[in-house]
């Protein structure tokens, strides 16, 4: 339908002040290494919005897509907001555009001090390849997911923690103990932990996450913790892996919601930036390993013009490859808080 306004690398770098890649062999190749990761063509409508059904877990808004496939069926997990907090649901689709809600898979537990108001499943362990149908991987014969939970009622209130959950069928999950707490980390994450994204590289699990500083206004950056046994987790010494840019950068305030994939010897991290202008945009960092990334000098999915579904925010990525095309799901926000419209949108690598 409509192409993103900033897809040319040089134009984007000059317009919003992203620093260029360092002088690396792969960055000097004639073919731009960011090209396979691009999804400039937006679908003009939300593919999923708040249900509007009184009392439903996703009555007010939907957020944080995570897409994968099982056989010939596509699935999307998402968090729903009902005015009290987040809970996690799932929907299915035959074509990545038309989605059927299947219900809640992770619900709040009033008797649990960790999840009494919120539980947001952010990722399920899947294959790492960018150009893959995002098939799920199992650990000891079971599905493994990463979630985060805020301690208080409301919209992302309090310092959230991160944990894991296990399932045999994707619909019933058993929550494990908290594995990362903000108070155990550095200053950049003491305000609370956000979306965890879990991958496996060799015999090591990598858990990427964004976190915020204390006080207001806070800043968000992205870090990494690793484990071989899913019990003991070690924060990476180079954290935060993705820090905030300078005052003109699109990630000046937030560098958040990582999604990490591999492609032909490169590692790519999709993430979103919140700029000083108050708009959130989808960005990319690339590297030769899953622990070292350099920011790409372009915006992958920009906000739309006034009146469009993503006029305020285009953020929180999830990707899947199907029929020769890369699909990039994201949370689209229009309007003004507290009367904004928050739903899930999609862009892809070829025209609709």
Structural features, described:
There is one protein chain. The protein has 352 residues and is an all-beta fold. It has one domain: Glycosyl hydrolase domain, family 43 (Tachylectin-2, Chain A, 5 Propeller), CATH 2.115.10. The chain is 2% helix and 45% strand. Strand 12 and strand 13 form a beta hairpin. It is globular. The N terminus is likely disordered.
Brief sketch in words of this structure:
The protein is mainly β and 352 residues long. Helices cover 2% and strands 45% of the residues.
Q: Which descriptors apply to this entry?
A:
352 residues, mainly beta, Tachylectin-2, Chain A, 5-stranded antiparallel sheet, 1 helix, 22 strands
- The overall number of domains is 1
Distance between the termini: 6 Å
Low-confidence stretches: 1-30
Beta-strand segment tally: 22
Give the biggest sheet: 5 strands, antiparallel
Q: Look at the structure and name the CATH superfamily.
A: Glycosyl hydrolase domain, family 43
CATH class placement = Mainly Beta
Domain Glycosyl hydrolase family 32 N-terminal: 133-270
Keywords: Glycosidase, Hydrolase, Signal
Protein name: Glycosyl hydrolase family 32 N-terminal domain-containing protein
GO molecular function: hydrolase activity, acting on glycosyl bonds
Would you spell out the secondary-structure blueprint of this structure?
Layout: E1 2-3, H1 9-16, E2 41-42, E3 61-70, E4 73-81, E5 86-93, E6 100-106, E7 120-124, E8 138-139, E9 142-149, E10 161-167, E11 173-180, E12 192-201, E13 204-212, E14 220-227, E15 234-235, E16 254-263, E17 266-274, E18 280-289, E19 292-295, E20 313-322, E21 325-334, E22 341-348
Antiparallel strand pairs: 1-2, 2-22, 3-4, 4-5, 5-6, 7-9, 8-9, 9-10, 10-11, 12-13, 13-14, 14-15, 16-17, 17-18, 18-19, 20-21, 21-22
């Amino acid at each position: 339908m409509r192409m993103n306004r900033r897809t040319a690398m040089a134009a984007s770098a000059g317009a919003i002040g992203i620093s260029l890649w360092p002088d690396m062999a792969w960055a000097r190749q004639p073919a731009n290494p960011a090209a396979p990761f691009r999804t400039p063509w937006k679908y003009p409508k939300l593919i999923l919005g708040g249900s509007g059904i009184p009392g439903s877990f996703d009555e007010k808004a939907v957020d944080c897509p995570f897409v994968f496939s099982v056989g010939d069926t596509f699935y999307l997990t998402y968090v729903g907001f009902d005015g009290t907090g987040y809970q996690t649901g799932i929907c299915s689709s035959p074509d990545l555009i038309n989605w059927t809600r299947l219900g809640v898979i992770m619900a709040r537990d009033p008797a649990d001090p960790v999840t009494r108001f919120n539980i947001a499943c952010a990722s399920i362990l899947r294959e790492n390849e960018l150009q893959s149908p995002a098939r799920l991987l199992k650990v000891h014969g079971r599905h493994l997911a990463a979630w985060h939970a805020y301690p208080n009622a409301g919209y992302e209130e309090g310092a959230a923690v991160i944990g894991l959950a296990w399932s045999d069928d994707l619909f019933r999950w058993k929550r494990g103990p908290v594995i990362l707490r903000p108070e155990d980390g550095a200053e950049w994450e003491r305000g609370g932990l956000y979306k965890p994204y879990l991958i496996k590289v060799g015999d090591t699990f990598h858990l990427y996450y964004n976190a915020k500083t204390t006080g207001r206004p806070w800043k968000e950056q992205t870090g990494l913790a690793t484990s071989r046994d899913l019990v003991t987790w070690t924060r990476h010494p180079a954290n935060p892996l993705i820090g905030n840019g300078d005052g003109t950068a699109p990630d000046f305030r937030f560098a958040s919601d990582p999604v990490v994939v591999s492609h032909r010897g490169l590692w790519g991290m999709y993430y979103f930036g919140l700029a000083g202008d108050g708009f959130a945009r989808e960005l990319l960092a690339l590297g030769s390993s899953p622990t070292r990334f350099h920011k790409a000098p372009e915006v992958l999915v920009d906000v739309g013009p006034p009146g469009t579904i993503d006029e305020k925010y285009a953020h929180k990525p999830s990707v899947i490859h199907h029929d020769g095309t890369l699909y990039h799901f994201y949370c689209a926000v229009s309007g003004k808080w507290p009367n904004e419209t928050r739903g899930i949108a999609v862009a892809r690598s070829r025209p609709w």
